[in-house]
Amino acid sequence: MNEKALELAKRIIELDLQRDAMFEQLIQLVGNRAEELLRFFQNRL
Asked: Which domain of life does the UniProt lineage start with (predicted)?
């Protein structure tokens, strides 16, 4: 594998971990409506 591919894979994993942490914060703020809120905004983009 080339270096660019490895760097991209590493960055994707880092972003995924960051997303998980942010989602946990969202759950703390809005509870079980977190998924609904994400879908709402995702559909507007």
From this structure: Bacteria
pTM of the model: 0.79
pLDDT per residue over 1-45, tens digit each? Answer: 799 999 999 999 999 999 999 999 999 999 999 999 999 999 998
Q: Look at the block and give the residue holding tokens 């079980």.
A: 32
The 3-class secondary structure across the chain, one letter per residue, is: CCHHHHHHHHHHHHHHHHHHHHHHHHHHHHHHHHHHHHHHHHHHC
Residues whose CB falls within 8 Å of the CB of residue 38, separated by 6 or more in sequence, listed in order: 23, 26
Q: Are 43 and 37 in contact (CB under 8 A)?
A: no
